[in-house]
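FYI - complex with magnesium ion, inputs then prediction.
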Amino acid sequence: MSTDQYKARMQRKKAHIDSRIEEANINKGIIVLLTGNGKGKSSSALGMICRALGYGMKIGIAKFLKGVQDTGEDAFLAKQTNVQTAFMKTGFTWDTQDKAYDTAMAVETWQKAQSYLKDESIDLVVLDELTYMISYKYLDEQIILDALNNRPSNQHVVITGRAATDGLIEIANTVSEVKDIKHAFRENIKAQKGIDL
Ligand code: ATP
Ligand code: MG
């Protein structure tokens, strides 16, 4: 390609992108859904929390399926004055094997999440690992969809977890599937501080 052809091609590309950017002039709260089997869903949510904190935005985080280990981000978030958290008080269901207890803990965490979704002062709500609460039937999908639909119009929501339901995919504005190609775990490398927890 000659220099002139290259220049013409880039000018057309710029005109196209500029017109698309101009068309995208709506400002509103969006739902971002991060699903799939690969690594990177919760850490992506943390990246958005970090961005929002940089603007002094207020954040509510509900973490469903809290593991037994504390993570680096829990320690970091506890120091942030603009962050409120609700962590589910149970480990994984295959550890506890008590459906009634797990359901009660899920409902307790959801009630806090729901209060964030009603709070106009909260700019970003993160519902980490929410998808499992629906697939294990700890929480009713329709109640969740109603709360998302009725939230303040400028409030953003980030939802993470494998195997998102069709209802969540439909209500979300941005949906990404993180695909598992390789994971260090399969080389018998244990979860590493700063990377996995
Ligand atoms: P992260 O929190 O690291 O962004 P994630 O939220 O995408 O991961 P989860 O399904 O919540 O993934 O699992 C959390 C933990 O499991 C992390 O330590 C992560 O490295 C690990 N993990 C994620 N995907 C895989 C996988 N495909 N195989 C094994 N372990 C995984
Ligand atoms: Mg996760």
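The longest strand covers residues 31-35. The mean pLDDT is 93.
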